[in-house]
Predict the structure.
Amino acid sequence: MGKIKIDLFSDTNTEPTPGMRRAMCEAAVGNEVAGEDPTVNLLLEKVCALLDKEAAVFLPSGTMCNGIAFRVLCERPGDLIILDQTAHPLKQSAGLIAGLAHAQPYPIDGENGIFSVQQIEPIIAAPHNYNHARARVVSIEQTTNFGGGAIWPLQTIEEVCQLAHRYEVRTHLDGARLFNAVVETGISAARYAQYFDSVWVDFSKSLGAPIGAVLAGSQAFIDAAWYYKFQQGGGLHQAGMLAAGCLYGLEHHLQKLPEVHAHAKQLAKRLSQLSFITLNPDDVQTNIVIFTVNHDCLSAFEIQQRLLEKGIRALAIDQNRLRMMVHLDISITDIQTVFTAMRDIGKDDANTR
Ligand SMILES: Cc1ncc(COP(=O)(O)O)c(C=O)c1O
């Protein structure tokens, strides 16, 4: 594989900027596990205010946030976690629902990662007896990753969460890309978070920090989360250097997300003009572009390989679909380069549709 010049594989593949690196180097630090790291504490305060939650904990990754939240929210081994069939904890997290939370996923066939209250009501409202595992958590992803960056409408969230709470089922918000939804809709993070017992936000995706996520909820929830943070080796000591990168992302990169989304929409518009691609550009709401390939000779995997040969990395989800994630390090010139590369790849084989 040659050098990757344009990396659309994931928005986690950003490089910390010189300003972010400086902020990290200069951070005030203390012992995080003793609650004595001033920069971590400042980050937690800011996130609690942003999400309007009582307490929060700093964790190295989103996967750990999901795993710990599910572990705390579930009561008995075998409890059900309802989530979309494309959800990250199901597709990409090395079996964490079973392995860490000792629970089982109940996957829902949503649209672009979004399901409706009607789809989950029969599971949640089912009378349960000793034969049946009990629904314990409903988890949603804002925005949806493998649903193509789609934004859950506030009303759907409200309906789903109100139903869950009526049946004493807990609600969890995987906010890996919550900030993308916030800048796109103008709806605050707190308004989204109000319906959830647990919520986390990520700094290493849209905000460009190298590491860092914050899980938030009630004080009792976070007290319980600390136990599993320790158990999983997530006690971090002088973590202020990492938290400083997260704070820098909040202060300097959040405002750049509208431009990132504009680039993704531009990419979608250009790609939709190619005859071997099926893509409705109006479906692209944030930074993720997923499209279907209808090429007579090339599968999505082969196109992924051809792109790599041109120094461009994308993700073939399956035989027919490719995902491109736009982020802070992708310029409008890169978007043009990707379009030209795709056009040339399509033409190389004369048999395009
Ligand atoms: C929706 C979603 N949840 C969770 C994660 C896991 O985050 P991390 O890579 O920080 O463990 C990801 C990663 O891309 C994600 O997209």
The domain at 256-348 is CATH 3.90.1150.10 (Aspartate Aminotransferase, domain 1). The chain has a mean pLDDT of 96.
